[in-house]
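Summary for the funding panel

The consortium committed to producing paired sequence-structure records for every protein in the target list. Below we show the first two records in order, beginning with the earlier of the two.
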Amino acid sequence: MTYRSSLLRLLDERGYIHQVTDAGGLDALAEKQTVPAYVGFDATASSLHVGNLVSIMLLRRLQQAGHKPVVLMGGGTTRIGDPTGKDEVRKMLSDEQIEANIASIRTAFERFLTFGDGPTDAVMVNNHDWLGKIGYIEMLQRVGTHFTVNRMLSFDSVKLRLEREQPMTFLEFNYMILQGYDFRHLSQEMGVRLQMGGSDQWGNIVNGVELARRMDSTEVFGLTTPLITKADGTKMGKSVSGAVWLNEEALPAYAYWQFWRNCDDRDVGKFMRLFTDLPLDEIARLEALEGSAINDAKVILANEATRLCRGEEAARAAEATARETFAGGGLGEDLPTIEVTGEGIRLGAACTALGFTASNGEAKRKIGEGAVRLDDVAMDDPGHLIAVAPGETRRLSLGKKKHGLLKGM
């Protein structure tokens, strides 16, 4: 459909819209007033990763269109565990771990959103503040009566888990009830009218929309993004070496930059629309480049994505390191680095320590394939002991795109 509000036009043009509970109603609302909208994030780790980035960018686009982003941290629901797409019960974290994770995650949001007290300034809230105060009997009486087990069993997050004969605890079964109640609470207390999230959250979002209508006769809306996949069909958010974390403490800026620089040619335009603020006409020009020229577009993508997440200085340093490493054959200062004692380090262990591989077993396979080079010399023995004299620096490479430094202590 053709949207009239600047919010839905922006989201549509950039490829964020997959499903909307009532597109016409939301469009009309966004055209006439500021819409507070939220996305929920559980605090299972100290950093979110690239797989969460489309939801973060949704909140950024919302603010750019003149509306109010609400970041909901799941201090309460993290204690339960979202069963969506999972085959295992979530590991339980302590209260201290959850609070520390939320504090760490906030630092990433502060780069993408403007926080404050203004009508369109972002705010961060924690659902433990209200979920932690509700008694079990009260929750059953007030909220549980609006959910049928028949309906809950029909959702993919439950049905697929049961079909695979994977255990699902009663604790996890309650997750959708709590998420629905979050929407209702935010609607009542903060005037939130829209919940956004990934396509796998559609059932949970619809539950919240229906709960608000049944309990309060309040009209609220839901919007989901499409599943973001790479051109090879794999899910966005992982690299060969594991998750692509947003926080610097979890992943160096150079490695983050390299993730974007190494993307498939076919993904350049899509990623620019979703994950950068580049104008659409400029993106159209860049994604039309062919041959080796598309690499220039990839550098722009890497710079823009890194600038948003890590800052201007980090983006410039990462590009300079890449230029020196790949073009000049030098040792860029921003390359991932490990310190090596006088005892040395085994080749396979060095690959894993630098993040080239997820395990020593994978490192052994890569070395056997002839993909690992030490100071540009191909290596074939995973057990080779690398000696690095104090003050000396040696370069380890996996293929043409992964490089790291071994510094002697």
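The next record, for a separate protein in the list, is shown here:
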Amino acid sequence: MVAPAADGTTDFSLLQNELRRKSTRIVMVAFDLIYLNGQDLRKLPLI
């Protein structure tokens, strides 16, 4: 999870502050996905 700043960067202290209250700014960033929309991605090239 990250909380992007106004300039698009992320900052751990900003995330901590957002977690202390009901925030709509927190987003989940997924990487190293092995499945997407039911498709196995493990055999695809890394691009």
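Regarding this second record: The longest strand covers residues 35-36. The first helix runs from residue 12 to 19.
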